[in-house]
UniProtKB/TrEMBL annotation:
Signal peptide: none annotated. This is SDR family oxidoreductase. The keyword Oxidoreductase applies. It comes from the Bacteria. Belongs to the short-chain dehydrogenases/reductases (SDR) family. InterPro entries: NAD(P)-bd_dom_sf (IPR036291), SDR_fam (IPR002347). Keywords: Oxidoreductase. The keyword Secreted does not apply. Gene3D superfamilies: NAD(P)-binding Rossmann-like Domain. It comes from Streptomyces goshikiensis.
Length: 244
């Protein structure tokens, strides 16, 4: 699949799976608009992408603090100053909080975990919706988590993380119904813990991917590409995965 006609916004692209998404989408030809909490983090990924031979005018870096409404608005405005539409919004931003004991996290940790995952997803989607509606092929993709599934209990994540992911699940569920008539597909992924191999390393091509192995970032990226590559009558609402 080639994406040279796609303009893609990726939140929390400075590290981990956000960086993976940025590298892979750019390698397939998409024009990418990357955000991270700090501009330095976003710029580092931008330079990694440029080092792979991508033209400078096809990759853009921005600072965005998803817990700050003004910062989210500024990010969207900066993207709008460069393009009249975007085709894909990849909601990847969400702070992880570890710990099975509710008392193990500070109040500040709880607030930040909920704000980055739940509030940040709503704010980013709201801010970029006008640019998505200007596209002929708009897709909103949200990285939720198995923790957002009803009855899920196998993760070592903190209760606040479960709460944030459940909020994302509720938001994307209703959004999918309400935006369908406007041609916007809302796609959610609910992965368990997965192996995020560096796309610039040999492990990306050589990682074991059998039924006995954990889910890989490669497969998650392929799910996203599959969903956005379908004809516009095909609305794939969510991907759910078995956990090893």
């Amino acid at each position: 699949m080639t994406l040279e006609h796609h303009r893609v916004v990726i939140t929390a692209a400075g590290r981990d799976f956000g960086r993976t998404l940025a590298l892979r989408f750019a390698s397939l030809g998409a024009e990418v608009f990357l955000s991270a909490r700090t501009l330095d983090a976003a710029e580092r990924v931008r330079e990694e992408i440029r080092a792979q031979g991508v033209d400078a005018d096809r990759v853009h870096a921005f600072a965005c603090e998803l817990t700050d409404p003004a910062s989210v608005r500024e990010f969207a405005a900066a993207v709008a100053a460069r393009t009249g539409h975007i085709d894909v919004l990849l909601n990847n931003g969400s702070r992880y909080q570890h710990g099975t004991d509710l008392l193990s996290a500070s109040d500040e940790d709880v607030v930040d975990t909920l704000a980055s995952g739940a509030t940040g997803t709503v704010l980013a989607t709201k801010a970029f919706l006008p640019l998505l509606l200007a596209s002929a092929k708009p897709d909103i993709v949200t990285m939720v988590s198995g923790c957002g599934e009803s009855g899920h209990h196998r993760s070592e994540a903190h209760d606040a993380f479960y709460a944030a992911k459940s909020a994302q699940a509720g938001f994307t569920d209703i959004l999918s119904r309400r935006l369908r008539d406007r041609g916007v597909r809302v796609i959610s992924l609910y992965p368990p813990d997965f192996d995020n191999h560096d796309p610039l390393s040999e492990a990306w091509e050589n990682a074991p991917r059998t039924a006995k192995d954990p889910l890989t970032a490669q497969s998650l990226v392929n799910c996203v590409l599959f969903a956005i590559g379908q004809p516009r009558d095909c609305f794939i609402k969510s991907f759910h995965f078995e956990q090893v």
